[in-house]
Amino acid sequence: MTGAAGAALASLVFPGTARSAKHFGTLAESELLIGFAHTSPVNDGGWTQKHDEAIRHLHALYPAIRTLYVESVPYSADATRIFRQFVAEGAQMIIATSNYGDFISDVAEQAPDTIFLECDGHRVSDNLGWYYMTHWYASYVIGIAAARLSRSGRLGYVASFPTPSVLASANATLLGARSVNPSATLRAIPINSWFDPQAAASAGAALIDSGCDFLAGIMDDPGYLRVAQQRGVWAAMWNTDMRQFGPDAYVSSVVLDFAPFYAQTVRRRLAGSWRAEGRFLKLGEGVDRDRWGARVPPAVAREADDVRRRILAGWSPFTGPIRDSRGIVRVAEGHTMSDADIYAWDWQVQGVSGLV
Fold first, then answer.
1. Which part of the chain is the ABC transporter substrate-binding protein PnrA-like domain (predicted)?
2. Fewest CB within 10 A of the end CB: N or C in the chain?
3. Which domains does the chain have, with CATH numbers?
4. Do the Cβ atoms of 146 and 155 come closer than 8 Å?
């Protein structure tokens, strides 16, 4: 690994390798206050909506706990102010549903008796942990369907930012596609936002105009799905089942479910057994592919799901040789990328363009 993501990898703490020894006392349900910092509105139809659904599930399981949240927290010093405000209001646990880096870790250092969790985070300390989902396996499965459905073999990808999580998603989609069509390509257009329906729609239209007949992406909204429906091409989405916004175009989504993880986290906090760690939510346990769209041929769905079953049984598709976009072998033959490797992916695989 090279670049910023490679540097981040060196400081990551992955499941089974390290865990904080600090103990936090038991709490009654009525004593627990949790603050949530969201990257987008709770009604975005995607990422933050899935977190909000998990929070509502928490209230059903633990009616006496209290929660509060702030939407659309910026990636700036304002985030630090919000985390500090949560501490000032007495929150014993603060959960950032996106990666806020130093903005959250600095506050965690100053509030050692408060538990902090960061989705897509990269650090573990006595009171700070992270969690993320191995979405790249679901993306690979959907990529197989993309290759079968695309007539041209040219896939388009609406990206937010060129971060490792986005690169992992795009790379996995194309690797899945190339497993059945070795000449498939994927062109990405980053829009520098996680939630911008107009920009996502514009990027989707530009990709179709360039010859792509299958759209994928990692957005919190259905902007490009609407365009796919209008233009008569296929589309795969992220976060939730979005088929109502493009029923003829919809193929599947990388769907998320944070409810079991949040329930386990709260149970451990109440019992005084929570310890800071890094945690991956696995395929079938927090992340998966959605039900196939109504127009996806059964044979295509079966082929993709056969691979999904192999992954669930322990097989990994991320085994070398894997070349980067310059043709250089980055994963040697016979070597399998670990989830830690994929989590810090900072290069495009051969056939992907537009991200680095």
1. 34-286
2. C
3. 3-134+257-281 (3.40.50.2300), 136-255+287-353 (3.40.50.2300)
4. yes
